[in-house]
Amino acid sequence: MALAGGVRVRARALLRAGAQFRGPVLGRPEPAAGGGDGTRRFANLRVLVEPDPAAGVAVMKLKSPPVNSLSLEFMTEFLISLEKLENDKAFRGVVITSDCPGVFSAGLDLTELCGQNPAHYAEYWKAVQELWLRLFLSNMVLVAAINGVCPAGGCLMALTCDVRVLADNPKFVIGLKETQLGIVVPFWLKDNLVNTIGHRASEHALQLGLLFPPAEALQVGIVDQVVPEDQLQSTALSVMARWMAIPDHARHLTKAMMRKATADSLIKHRDADIQNFVNFISRDSIQKTLQVYLQKLKQKKG
Ligand SMILES: CC/C=C\C/C=C\CCCC/C=C/C(=O)SCCNC(=O)CCNC(=O)[C@H](O)C(C)(C)COP(=O)(O)OP(=O)(O)OC[C@H]1O[C@@H](n2cnc3c(N)ncnc32)[C@H](O)[C@@H]1OP(=O)(O)O
């Protein structure tokens, strides 16, 4: 699936501005881009990709400090990296994890949702839809190695994955807390949750805006495994190895079959969903609530 129009334009702008794959990452000298040794890492500004072509797997590390919030730039860069892996036949699986200590992703970037104009909200929501669709319909096996708090839009990303492994730390809660912020999850994210944990559990989780700590997350089924923090990466890779043992075409066709109806319901109503979002987020009452919330977050330290 190709990037949607607005996101593609922004992607091109980012690439022109230099957000392409580059050699040295984390201060380590590496072969020049295109060196072809098959082992080097590559990165744009906010996503670090560690490829292991021999295993057919890449680890994507979200590194948009402080909290990996889903800004337009971050989502665009993420999708560029994902598309690059999708287009490279060497890669059949991706582990998604965070490079920001204690936070997988804080979800939608609240500064993108506050005090902007309708055109911006429309562009932003289109990018959120695109992020979800591209992950949800990915040909590759996606394993989320959740090494931090994972609320709302962070959970959205994790829910698109085939498997979620959560590090066992009571601070690492996961869930769709939207109602606590006075906002409502879109129907397609609700469907994604229902497909994952069932209808009744979703009703409770969504209405109450529940954030599940590890043991509860496992019990309700929003994650598949909880492991000690120091075993997260190795567990994610061994889960991946199990999935990689299945012939790709059969696995992928099965995944597509299982997910088609849920994805189609958004694909058929993308414009209406954008309009709905713009109308909702532009309301004075919603703007006020989000601004107060953002201010509270900012004052936390002070
Ligand atoms: C069609 C449908 C119609 C309508 C639907 C409308 C909307 C639906 C959207 C549904 C999908 C998803 C929604 C969302 O994702 S909303 C965002 C929800 N996220 C949160 O509530 C998390 C908020 N953040 C936190 O709780 C903490 O920051 C966190 C992640 C626990 C980390 O804590 P800590 O390490 O202590 O870090 P700080 O809190 O000090 O934060 C550091 C820094 O980051 C800023 N920040 C945090 N979160 C966000 C964010 N989500 N967006 C933007 N900025 C964020 C924070 O303000 C601090 O900034 P500073 O300048 O002070 O450094």
TrEMBL record:
Pathway: Lipid metabolism; fatty acid beta-oxidation
Localization of this protein: Mitochondrion matrix
Keyword set, alphabetical order: Acetylation, Fatty acid metabolism, Isomerase, Lipid metabolism, Mitochondrion, Transit peptide
Enzyme Commission designation: 5.3.3.8
Gene3D superfamilies from the UniProt entry: 2-enoyl-CoA Hydratase, Chain A, domain 1 (3.90.226.10), 6.10.250.170
Matches recorded under Pfam families: ECH_1 (PF00378)
InterPro entries: ClpP/crotonase-like_dom_sf (IPR029045), Enoyl-CoA_hyd/isom_CS (IPR018376), Enoyl-CoA_hydra/iso (IPR001753)
GO cellular component term of the entry, any: mitochondrial matrix
Molecular function as annotated in GO: delta(3)-delta(2)-enoyl-CoA isomerase activity
Family statement: Belongs to the enoyl-CoA hydratase/isomerase family.
Protein name in UniProt: Enoyl-CoA delta isomerase 1, mitochondrial
Phylogenetic lineage: Eukaryota, Metazoa, Chordata, Craniata, Vertebrata
